[in-house]
Amino acid sequence: MIRKAHILTLPLVLLFVACQTVEPPKAVGPTPSQRQMDWHELQYYAFVHFNMNTFTDMEWGTGGESPALFNPTQLDTRQWAKVAKDAGMKGIILTAKHHDGFCLWPTKTTEHSVKNSPWKDGKGDVVQELADACKEHGLKLGLYLSPWDRNNEHYGKPEYVKIFHEQLRELLTNYGELFEVWFDGANGGSGYYGGANETRKIDNKTYYEWEKTTEMIRELQPNAVIFSDGGPDIRWVGNEEGWANETNWSVMRRDEIHPGWPRYVELRSGHEDGTHWLPAEVNTSIRPGWYYHPGEDHQVKTLPRLVQTYYESIGRNGNFLLNLPVDDRGLVHENDVQQLMALKAQIDTDFAQELAQGNTASASNVRGNSSTFNAEKAIDGDFETYWATDDGTTQASITISLDKPTKVNRILLQEYIPLGQRIKKFTVSAEVDGTWLVLDEQTTVGYKRILRFETVTATQIKVDILDAKGPITLSTLELYNAPPFLVDPKITRNRDGMISIEIPDDEVDVYVTTDGKEPTTTSKKYDGPFSVLTPTNVKVIAVNPNNGQQTQTVSQYFDLAKKDWKVVGALQNDTDVVKLMDDDPNTFWATDENSSNSNEITIDLGASHTITGFSYWPIQERYPFGIITKYEFWVSQDNRTWKSVSEGEFSNVANNRIEQKINFNPTLARYIKLNALEKHNGDTRTSFAEIGVFTTNQ
Fold first, then answer.
1. What predicted TM-score, i.e. pTM, was given to this entire model?
2. Rounded Cα distance, 389 and 397, in Å
3. Between residues 655 and 449, which one has the greater pLDDT?
4. Which residues are CB-neighbours of 211 under 8 A, at least 6 positions away?
5. Distance separating alpha carbons of residues 593 and 512, to the nearest angstrom
6. Of 23, 163, 280, 557, which sits 20 to 30 A from 601 (CA to CA)?
7. At residue 698, does pLDDT exceed 70?
């Protein structure tokens, strides 16, 4: 009888347990597919622009280039893969064919490919070599295929669409699994087109038969996401500078969008009322250009800029696609490698120790009061578990009670996006010395949101969800205390002679000297711009006040300030001409093509000085022009009688666009004149980023 009683009570126990089971929230709005979820988890990967443009010093080739130009001397895709792996990247996307139509694999569809290049006697295959290198280093492979083909004679006709589809089929079937297929929005325009050398336009909504293209990818590479302005899987973020808006929805009204969509600014934020899951990929290049140009070797993005991009892409619910312009040797350039590794080290430092896990988490509302959805699930390190609220509860708070006062300056949040993106508005607060302080107020979270704020010593951190589309599902809440961001300070001076010292972290101290002595922590502490009008060597160090760690001394020499300088002659009324003497080499002034004085500039220094040399900064724009290669420099006391004091060449200036410094015997001058005897590529215009003089030997 006792055994029967146990058997009879078992259904009652099971019924009780079933009654206690709390169902998860229902999905809200569009949700990601498995391939999209896999893509979200990658977060950071490389773009490699390497193609015919690498050897012609162009960004967009015309299509008429000879395959004989493609001849890298040290091509090593294993170096690419190792660099990407060491940098913390998860994959590489290669430009298998750019707009000029040159194919990096021996395609059967055109003669304009590696098979007719001298590289490896026409027997090479860059795509295959990269596929092998990615497999060796545990990276995923993606491929970029330009729909636009400025080489193909059939472009604009139905015959080309068949060629394009066959090229795609070759790439989808011959190189293993792909994680992403990348289509550019640039379509139609001028080109070689088999020798026609004309402009051709197409309807980019219909010409390429996108439905057929998508079907082929789904059939042959079912796990690959498809990128274009409007997806169908992932979207462009609407700029190439490397940032998403602070509000960034992973959903959009996808059917409104097409390649070349004119309302591209909406891509930066997505649509709150979106109909499809269409998350943003944030792409930018580590240099000004997408392809390698020797003249940009000094323009690799700084570490502060790369760190900012990380936080404004991954930290704003996007994936970070960073372009590496492989050089004409066939290698990732050493300057680029250096910055990639510096970024990896800095991000590792920022997120070295997570502080929330192991502390107590509580919430103002827990779905069904169930332990399955309690606040602890947000700090357990498992994305698949999450804190959730009851149906109808779209405002709630989660609080982390720290076991001791703890320094915090970063918070990382993740929604459980398999059930949709929900959060519309939230704040982050800290309890400091018994008082609650609001640290930030923001909008969306999505797959990942990272906020940086001034360091606080907190006993509790609270996230208040103020508005959401449905019950809250927060899978991750992490806290960090990143050390002060210590990099070499940047010293600049404006036209009025005011010196500014830039550092990316306000919690770092800067010490400065102007008397030639080495700066120490007993030197003057920098607290704002100061005036330097006469020749001075400014020296600075940055110091971490927490541990005394400091940078090397950064030294910058400044000669005469330019506040009293004026351009004289026919150009004196040109308001923009001041840009060539504003002490900022990132601005420029250029002559008109039809100007009678298109080769020279005359400047009144405002007073007579004994000068010993001059400097010329070439234009720093992405598409430079008018760079002076041969010069003559003149001086005068009265703007009537002139004396030539230097004539010569700026060697290799087009490929190495740094400040050119020329010394000559000391001479008294109030007026100076720089005459361009020759310009790079015979340009009709002359450009000046900055002109300066020296009154001491340089």
1. 0.91
2. 10
3. 449
4. none
5. 45
6. 557
7. no
